[in-house]
Amino acid sequence: MLRILGKTSSINVRKVLWTCVELNLPFRREDWGSGFQPTDSPEFLRLNPNAMVPVIVDGDFVLWESNTILRYLANQYGGAHLYPGAPRARAAVDQWLDWQATDLNDAWRYPFLSLVRQSPAHQDPTLLASASAQWTARMRLLEQRLESTGAFVAGNDFSLADVAIGLSLNRWLRTPLEHPPLPALAAYHARLRQRPGFLEHGDNGLP
Question: Could you tell me which InterPro entries the record lists for this protein (predicted)?
Fold first, then answer.
């Protein structure tokens, strides 16, 4: 059975868990990370020298990096409906997966650490205001994209891109900052809430 190493409070672990629900793929999750088994232990570092979750162990195959894990699971376990094989359709999914991992993650890091994690190192009001504005700008960009598709991030159909971005949207909504009215994002959130995997691993009270 597929092993997933990582605690459920990790947004990146929850990407993998949600994808498994979409694939009807059984798994066994193990608690690793802060407060649980340490990721700097020799046992874990043999699996991921970056000392970060998630890691999957699929038989004798070990893989880390959450968005790479999503792609592998879809390719390995009949997930063409989540990660299409046609080059242009796949490129659209990859584009938004990469955008989530780079531009969007960079935008929310400071506000999330400041307002949710209450990190003492992230309490500069000027930096917080600037980073919050950047995060909102990224969400406005996503609003424009969803106005264009009228459905999901990569197009008409739900895909792996929606797993990554849906969890990021949940984080934005649950972070206590000003949220301007973005109707396409609100409608998108309602569509995601029709999916059991999102309710269990996304819209479940965790930021």
Answer: Glutathione-S-Trfase_C-like, Glutathione_S-Trfase, Glutathione_S-Trfase_N, GST_C
